[in-house]
C-alpha cells in the first residue's frame, strides 16, 4: 500500500493559497461533497446540491441556436499548467474555424466558450456549473486533467451533457456505465503498460522508480505502473510524490535518487517533471519516461538543452508526420487559424477532439445532446483522416494507440518501436 502524504516544508505558499481558495469556492458552490477513493486532495462535489440550478438549463438542445452551436471548455489557462489548456483550446478552435470556413454544421457556426480553472478541482466544478447553467453550452470539450474532470463528472452525468475528449487517461472516465463521456485517447493504464513493456523487453530494466503528482492523476498513473510491474513479478524500487500546481520536487528527488533506479517513470506536469529530471541528473543517470499528459512540447521547452534522451509516451500521431492525413489537415487548419502557432501534440489532440465533435454534430439533423451522444457512442468505427476510432456498447474510448517518442538534442520528438535501437 502506497500512502499519499503532505510535506508542507516543500509546499509553496502560493500553491497553498490557490488550494485554499479552491476549497472555499467549492464549499460556497456545492454545500456538500463526497470523497475520492483515489486521492484525498481531489474534490468530488455532490450534483444534488445544484439540482434546482440546473433544471432550468437542462434541455436536450441547449447550446443550439439558429445560427450557431456553442461548446464549453474548462481548462488551465493560468497557473503552472497553462500551456496544456492553451494548446488544447488552440487545437479545438482550429478545427472549429476550419469547419466554419466550410459553412459550419447544418448551416450553424461552431463556437467555444472557455473558462480558466487553473488546474484546480474547485474552480473546474464552478466553471462546469456556470457553462451548463449560465452559458447553456451544448456540451463540454477538451477539459484538461484528471482531478478537474473528476469534479465536473457528477454535473455532466446527472444531466446528460456531452463530455467530449477530456485530456486525461484516467480509468474512472472509462467506466462502461457512464452515459455522457466520450474519450478520444488511450488510457494511462495503456501508456504505463507500454512503458514497462519497452523498458523490460528492450532494455532489460527491472529497477524502476515512480514520481507522481499527489492527486487522482498521479494515483491513476502510479496504479498503472504498479500493475504493469506486478504482471512481470516486479515492484518499484521507490515511489514518491509532489503536490499539484507546484514544482516542489526536492523530497521526491532525494528519495528516488537514493534508490538508484535504472529508470524513472514520471506522472506529472511539465514544470515539476522538468525540474525533477534536472535535479536527478546531478546524482544519477537513469532512463526518464513521462506520460502524455506532461505536454511533450512544453516539457521540451522547460528542459532546453537537457531534453535529449527523455522519453514521452504519446496517444496521437507525431505532429511532424505529414504523411498521416489528420496531421497534414491539422497543420493547415492551425496555420489558417494562427500563422504564428507552433504545432504540438496537445494542440493536435485538441484538433482531433474538435473534428470528433463535428462528426457527431453532422450525424444529427435534429441537433440534440441525446442524438449527438448516440451517434458517437454507438458508431461502429470512425475514420478520423487516417486515425481509426472504435466505440460501442461498454466502450467509450475511441483510440488505444500508444507510441513512445524520444527527444533529441534540439527537442525534436523521434518515434521509436524498440528502445534498444536508438537513432545515432
In summary, what is this structure?
With 424 residues, the protein is an alpha/beta fold. The protein is built from 13 helices and 16 strands.
How would you describe the overall organization of this protein?
The chain is an alpha/beta fold. 40% of the residues lie in helices and 16% in strands. The chain has helices spanning 13-30, 51-55, 82-101, 121-133, 146-158, 188-203, 216-230, 250-259, 270-280, 296-303, 325-337, 345-362, 369-377, and strands at residues 33-34, 44-45, 68-75, 109-116, 139-141, 163-164, 181-182, 208-213, 238-242, 263-267, 287-290, 311-314, 382-384, 387-389, 403-407, 413-416. The protein has a seven-stranded mixed β-sheet, with helices on both faces. It has a five-stranded parallel β-sheet with strand order 4-3-5-6-7, sandwiched between helices. Helix 3 packs across helix 12 (345-362), helix 6 packs across helix 7 (216-230) and helix 9 packs across helix 10 (296-303).
